[in-house]
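Summarise this fold before class:
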Amino acid sequence: MAGAWKNWLDNYFDLYRSALATENIHEKLVSFHDLAVQVRGRKGKLMFAGNGASASIASHGAVDFTKQGQVRAVDFNEPNLITCLSNDFGYENFMAKAVEFYADDGDVLVLISVSGSSPNAVAAAKYARSRGIKVVSFTGTSPDNELRSLSDIGFFLDSRAYNVVEGVHMIWLTTVVDMLVGRAEYAVGNAAAAPAEA
């Protein structure tokens, strides 16, 4: 039975292999790392948001940046927050309103959207830019997506394979966390003891 799937799986995992060799990915990872170090140094925070599976990735990122990377981070996935702001301002505006209420000068907004065209993510990016808040995005699908064009650092995977794009977004995010720690293997309870500055 496994033989029948061999070619399919080989082709499928080739999507991941090519994604990990995305052009300029090393430079973008270093840029995000350096920005996170700056945020940590000025005691600012990263604000994460996404929809659906990207919301789960945002939550994972916020926890790991806080605990392992020692960079304070929050996400906007609390149901009370989402439903309150959506009810009062519309779902397309809830992320922007969350940024308005939670952002301090010098914070950074991290938005995750496979399409790069989710209206609430685009609105949040536009609001953040109007406040002078830097935007880091993780997108896919189309290279000229609006969210990518609004970003200071735009991670992009040229693919319409949603699970692959989301999986790679997670890899890129957690890579930056491990860069902050300075190593790939560590006991997570002690990971943040001596974060790397390099």
User: Anything to note?
Assistant: The mean pLDDT is 93. The longest helix spans residues 162-181. Strands lie at 46-50, 73-75, 108-113, 134-140, 153-157. The chain has eight helices and five strands.
